[in-house]
Every structure is written in structure tokens, then in C-alpha cells.
């Protein structure tokens, strides 16, 4: 049985489509996290809305450490993230799914590690491949099977937000090799690596970036695009959960802190409980 965490972003906050789910509150050293627990295809599923189910938390204020720590405490070993993004690449028009393979981090004010030196805890994690190659293989296989327009790789530029990018920034990010821009994959991805959880991200292109779009960007445009793609996103999740086929790629995600003795939960506190 797999224990899968699904982290939904803008437009992926409604968990009702996943059937009957039990609310969980997880106390962590970094604050409280809330998620929904269910089962599908014999696997445990934990759904977490990173902006809150009412979309009340902006990207730079998300408690990323509490969210990832909570999933680790619940025994989650793999996370599938969904993010709404703007395209920096005319070859990736709105409606395209992108299985991101690299990222560029331009965040500024976020705590990006579990290891800030408290109690003598310091760790330096390898992050050359920020996304799990095995999970990316599974996700790409699902997108091919569903016949959805997608790119099997791409570089995600993480901006601080909550504002959208300037036209000059979009040109710079594209020149640096960026393919899509969003506001939430960091520090989420690196925290998952520190917690030794496999992590993959499926970005959904909702609009072209500033300077490439024919009109000014708006959050309404993003949410409307995600609503149009809701059935496809749910189909991806269902296919991913049901895919237990063999994988040719391997990963070291679950041994990321091996030289430090692993990510030790006993060094922290907090309990999971049903509401």
C-alpha cells in the first residue's frame, strides 16, 4: 500500500471529487496543518490544499514546513503537487501540463529548511535533481495514457509573489532557461527532499507570462482556466493513484539525509488526530 500526499494549488482546492474524506489536524513544531484522508485503489491518500480550502493563504505566507512535516508524520512517502503557472515558452500554451524537471528559485522571504541550527541540527541536502525521477516517470506515463497535451520536462521559475512578474522579468527568466513561472514550488520541493519524501510536480499552464499575453494578467483568468481543466486534473490524479506499474528510474529521495542519520521524527513533536 502506498501512502500518497496530493498537494493542490489554485483551482485544486475542492477535494469533494475524491469521495468521502476524513479531516485531520496535525500538530507540528512549525504550526498546525490540516489535510483530508481517504483511500483509493487500496492506497492511503492525504489531500492538502496549500492555500487553504477557501484559498485564503497567499503563496509567500504558506506554512510550507508545517505542511511537509505533517505529511511526513502521517507516513506519506510520495507527494504529487499541482501548480497553476504562467508560460515563459510559446511552445507551452495554456492548457498544457508540464512535468517539471528543474527549478530556479527567486523567492526571498521564506524559511526554506527544517535545519536552521536549532538544537545543533544542520544539514546540507543534495538538490541537483529537485524532482523525483521515478515519480516523474509515473506521472508522464499517466499523461501519455490519458492523451493530454503535456511536456515531459520543464524548468519551473519560483517567484516570491503575490504579484505577477514584470515583462522584463519574464524575458530574463526565459533567457535563463525557465519554461513556466509560479509561486509555490519552493521551499515545498526542498523541504520534501529534506524530509526524504519523493516529490513530483505537475504544472498546469493557465496563461502566457507578462509581455507574452495579449491582455493584463488576473487571478480570475487563472482560476477560470483551472476550472476548465478540472476534469483533466482529476483524471491525472486518478490515473496516478492507480498506476502501480514498474518504473525504470530509481531515486535517492528516501535516503537524502543518510549521512546525517536520516530525517528523525523523534527530534520533533506533534500528533495527528481526526477532528
Automatic annotation (TrEMBL):
Keywords: Glycosyltransferase, Purine salvage, Transferase. InterPro entries: MTAP (IPR010044), Nucleoside_phosphorylase_d (IPR000845), Nucleoside_phosphorylase_sf (IPR035994), Purine_phosphorylase-2_CS (IPR018099). One of its GO terms (cellular component) is cytosol. Its EC number is 2.4.2.1. Residues 3-241 form the Nucleoside phosphorylase domain. The keyword Transit peptide does not apply. The keyword Cytoplasm does not apply. The record marks 165, 219 as: Important for substrate specificity. GO terms for molecular function: S-methyl-5-thioadenosine phosphorylase activity. It comes from the Bacteria. GO terms for biological process: L-methionine salvage from methylthioadenosine; purine ribonucleoside salvage. It is an enzyme of class 2 (transferase). It catalyses: a purine D-ribonucleoside + phosphate = a purine nucleobase + alpha-D-ribose 1-phosphate. Substrate binds at residue 183. Phosphate binds at residues 10, 50-51, 83-84, 184. Pfam families: PNP_UDP_1. CDD domains: MTAP_SsMTAPII_like_MTIP. Belongs to the PNP/MTAP phosphorylase family. MTAP subfamily. NCBIfam families: MTAP, PRK09136.1. Although this enzyme belongs to the family of MTA phosphorylases based on sequence homology, it lacks several conserved amino acids in the substrate binding pocket that confer specificity towards MTA. Homohexamer. Dimer of a homotrimer. HAMAP family: MTAP (MF_01963). Purine nucleoside phosphorylase involved in purine salvage. This is Purine nucleoside phosphorylase.
